[in-house]
């Protein structure tokens, strides 16, 4: 492909804050990026590329959940002393 065949289109920009960058809505919509998806950054031959890694199903597949029954805690709410028995039905 020669240079005249390439199309460059700017569809959004964002500011960097610390080590984080937001993805503009126009890009999220066009690339179908949703909550739970990840982006993989690659640097190759002086060119930056981004790959969207989709996570649409099975996000909580291995999560066993909490059955709400009594659990023994090793600390209180501040993490200092043993809180003893906790029942999800108790009011805090």
TrEMBL record:
Domain of life: Archaea
InterPro entries named in the record: SpoVT-AbrB_sf
Region feature (Disordered): 1-30, 65-92
Descriptive protein name: AbrB family transcriptional regulator
Species in which this protein is naturally found: Halococcus salifodinae DSM 8989
